[in-house]
Amino acid sequence: MGKLKIGIVGYGNLGKGAEKALAQNPDMELVAVFTRRQPEQLAARGVKFEHISAAEQYRGIIDVMILCGGSATDLPEQTPAIARMFNTVDSFDTHAKIPEFYDAVDAAAKQGGNLSVISTGWDPGLFSLNRLLAESILPQGTGYTFWGKGVSQGHSDAIRRVPGVKAGVQYTVPSQAAIERIRSGETPDLTTREKHLRDCFVVAEEGADQDAIREAIVTMPNYFADYDTTVTFITEEQLQAEHQGMPHGGFVIRSGVTGEDRKQLIEFGLKLESNPEFTASVLVAYARAAARLSREGQTGARTVFDIPYAYLSPKSGAELRRDLL
Amino acid sequence: MGKLKIGIVGYGNLGKGAEKALAQNPDMELVAVFTRRQPEQLAARGVKFEHISAAEQYRGIIDVMILCGGSATDLPEQTPAIARMFNTVDSFDTHAKIPEFYDAVDAAAKQGGNLSVISTGWDPGLFSLNRLLAESILPQGTGYTFWGKGVSQGHSDAIRRVPGVKAGVQYTVPSQAAIERIRSGETPDLTTREKHLRDCFVVAEEGADQDAIREAIVTMPNYFADYDTTVTFITEEQLQAEHQGMPHGGFVIRSGVTGEDRKQLIEFGLKLESNPEFTASVLVAYARAAARLSREGQTGARTVFDIPYAYLSPKSGAELRRDLL
Question: Lower Cβ count inside 10 Å, N or C end of chain B?
């Protein structure tokens, strides 16, 4: 069997991460990157770029399209549209809207005879899998999800909207004290403030009132008011030198009991130097699964919950049983 | 739909754990425990006991048999025999013999029109799943499995065979230093000695030569010679008071890179106060999956690699997407 033919839709951080992840998987081949920009501007990178409007010409050529757009406006339109033509994988992560997104994609994919894996990545994605696994095995227990340490794009944007702020970045930091309590067997009810801290690094405009900026940030409703927030003023040079990475990660922990109060703890954790590259690596593994499910004749929308891990690997069932079981 | 009707075969620590786990899952019902002992001797416990030879009479009544025998001699015979009559779940854990065991159970289950999930539990089982997931997402990387801190039955038995030893227990202890090196992003080649320590607690017979016992243990080939082993002599009272639990656990860690050497770490860990109760809880969740797969008309052997997590949960797909994704 030949290599899996993959297309990437969108060439931001996630799309670039998918390109790099595909290079690590010899059973896959990147056919083209589809973009809303003028593809000529991007042509020098050794990858074939196409305008998104040309996607239809690749029907029958591309096995799976990896959709790397954003959840706010791109994916709600893109996934159903492209699922009518191709198998797809995406990282739609607006938790509250997943049910309606699933229905829309399911209908479109079935109409096109394709298979779409929605909402992969690590949360939703690997973290969701671990929440499900842990509560299925320990029905009597309490589950926790912690995020970080990592950059939150939404909170960084919120900082940058404060008057007098020139640039800034916000890190979500899980409370080590809370995690240690849970690891030691406690099942505390934790408030928002007890679970995560927010660390802000801010470049102020010249002459700006730093106290006023700090006050505006730490009291900002929804974003910071419910958290213990620190604001550190730094120079533009420091921001460039120390805060350009996109680290992230977190923990899914379930503390349960079996029998006569025997404590049992299941923990899954990620520590990522590049959030977009890791998310893209998950998308690529699920692209392999999408192609296989489609080849079996399956159609419609799937989530990570519906897909056996064997489908993520290029190895055969016999190899997996021999080497990894 | 009525409750799932479950049978348990074998009533040692694992079988008793399965009984307790079933009590935590309201969609399941324990019909009977099958044993090679005289069932009358066990009848007082509020559970229906049957001799193993009566199992056949439960065809059409029991949906899934949870096989709680040992891997050395019980399961290689029991699983194929019972798979001809019932859907089964077992925890066969002799890694090297899994391929032939799979083939034997697959043939028997297909012959009987049943579905058998083999080699569940946590290793093989949940640890295997995490090894597969992590290498599928981070193909460029190194994977590690650490076990413990926990009681190793085989090593405890080995201690008790040393002349002059009255009783004893052995704990496998993962090297915290090795784990921290990996967590910090290193991918060391670790020797056996560098990965785990072995802590032995020994009750000596009166007048026995403790130095000779210690020497016999720490130099014992296969079991202790390749490890840093400590031997602590304790009283029979201390053994009773402090070493009757069956704790275990461990870690599966993969350290990989994406793109231009971005380090990415995936870690799964368990901390268990009761190894058999936890293993049994995994078996029970996979019993639910076995029943569902069988109801779909699937037959033959399956491993954890072949089963989507959604099948482990009593919740519907829509509930899972809404609550856990």
Answer: N
* Residue A46 pLDDT level (bands cut at 50, 70, 90): confident
Q: Kindly list the residues from chain B whose CB atom is less than 8 angstroms away from the CB atom of residue A98.
A: 321-322, 325
Summarised one tens digit per residue, pLDDT across range A187-206 is 999 999 999 999 999 999 99
Which CA distances in Å does B175 have to B195, B243, B315? 5, 21, 39
Q: Min CA distance, B208 vs chain A (Å)?
A: 36
- Asked if A258's CB is within 8 angstroms of B20's CB, the reply is yes
Contacts with A, B 22-61, CB within 8 Å: 24-25
Average pLDDT over residues B115-138: 98
A30 to chain B nearest CA, in Å? 15
Helix (H, G, I), strand (E, B) or coil at B77: helix
CA A123 to chain centre: 5
Structure tokens, A51: 């305008």
Domain co-membership, B53 together with B109 = yes
How many domains does one find in chain A?
2
Packed helices B126-137 and A275-295: angle between N→C axes, nearest 10 degrees: 100
Q: Specify the pLDDT at position A214.
A: 97
pTM, rounded to two decimals: 0.96
Binding-site annotation, residues of A for NADP(+): 11-14, 35-37, 68-71, 91-93, 120-124
Radius of gyration, CA atoms only, chain B: 22
Determine whether the interchain pair B24/A139 forms a contact, defined as Cβ–Cβ distance below 8 Å: yes
Residue B213 domain flag: yes
Q: Helices marked H in chain A — which ranges?
A: 13-23, 74-83, 98-112, 126-137, 153-160, 176-183, 192-195, 210-218, 236-242, 275-295, 317-323
| CA B325/CA B319 separation, integer angstroms | 9
Q: Count residue pairs from A and B with Cβ separation < 8 A.
A: 201
Does residue A70 have a pLDDT over 60? yes
Q: Are residues A114 and A45 in the same domain?
A: yes
Q: Which domain holds residue A208?
A: 150-246
Q: Which residue reads 């340490």 in tokens?
A: A149
Q: What is the mean pLDDT of residues A71-81?
A: 95
| Residues contacting residue B223 through CB under 8 Å, at least 6 positions apart | B154, B155, B158
A9 touches chain B (CB under 8 A): no
Does B13 carry a binding-site annotation? yes
Q: Which chain A residues in 190-229 lie under 8 Å from chain B, judged by CB atoms?
A: none
